[in-house]
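User: two proteins, same treatment. go.

Assistant:
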Amino acid sequence: QVQLVESGGGLVQVGASLRLSCEVSGGTFSTYQMAWFRQAPGKDREFVANIDQSDRTRHLDSVQDRFTISRDNTKNTAYLQMNSLKPEDTAIYYCAARPYYMYDYTYWGQGTQVTVSS
């Protein structure tokens, strides 16, 4: 079965950087569109960024100039580079995978906590 494992979260101060990783096993990573979502306490889950099989990316407007999604098909891993972190970035970050033949994200990781302290 397909498994997604996130890592790289933590507690940082305002302005710091973090790089989240999402390693995928049990499937064909190169055929998946990959995405990052986040959920802050008391709020709905929101889309952060995605990257398709051709490395085309899309980012949430509020993170466009600070976050960058990428992927390495040789390592079956997607990344989210987060710079200039703000307190409002505090959330659990989830990665998700959408096979090319599916309309929605089918596989999800367990999440990694990012806390930005002021």
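Protein 2:
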Amino acid sequence: QVQLVESGGGLVQAGGSLRLSCAASGSIFRINAMGWYRQTPGKQRELVAVITRDGVTNYADSVKGRFTISRDNAKNTVYLQMNSLKPEDTAVYSCHADRPVPPYRYWGQGTQVTVSS
């Protein structure tokens, strides 16, 4: 079992920055990729960014150049640095961790990010 605890959400003005953190505990040796999704009411959950244990990253086109995902394997923590925030970035951001064998995705509880115009 893996537990994920997120922190760092909040309210920020457009153009501002926030840094989200997601700390993993439990059977973390089974985990490969970790990342962030976001969801707003009435919309499907969308991928924001993902990073593998080896540091390979992937971003949604909408956040490329503004968001940076990073990972500290020693602390079992993944970060999402969000710069140049826009009102359309407002969403609940959820951290995930993927166990490849057998395949399973763990989720955090989600943290609200609100960007005011």
